[in-house]
Amino acid sequence: MRIRPSVTRIFGLAVLPAVTAAVVSYFGYYAIWGERGYLALNDAQVKLVVAQEQLDRVADQRQRLEHRIALLKPGSPDPDLVEELARTRLMDGAPGQVAVPRDTP
User: How far is it, in rounded angstroms, from Cα 80 to Cα 23?
Assistant: First the structure.
């Protein structure tokens, strides 16, 4: 009869630390490798940087296009830009000139 209380006591003392370790392990695992864990945070930050760079490129492209459109407004078009567009579209030039197509950045 003496064994039963000591086994129950030891088992009772071991259950609380075991449950605590299991809970800490569970939440610790998901804090690092989980869907919203530390590694997912790093991936999201990398994606944010890539998207920000893409946004900057698109914004710069838009600004250049808006500037070119402003130069072509009716009433006072920029003669240099009109000539550049005409030569680009027609691939034509004055006698003795050679038109070389180029990729626009």
Answer: 72
CA distance 54 to 17: 51
Describe the chain by its helix, strand, coil percentages, rounded to 5: 75, 0, 25
Q: Look up residue 5 and give its two tokens.
A: 């209380």
Residue keyed to tokens 């567009």: 85
Q: What is the DSSP letter of 96?
A: T
Helices then strands, each counted (H, E), the chain = 3, 0
Whole-structure pTM value: 0.56
CA-CA-CA-CA dihedral for 80, 84, 86, 90, to nearest 10? 160
Quick: pLDDT tens for 39-96.
999 999 999 999 999 999 999 999 999 988 888 888 888 888 888 787 777 766 667 7
Q: Is 34 exposed, middle or buried (0-12, 13-18, 19+ CB in 10 A)?
A: middle
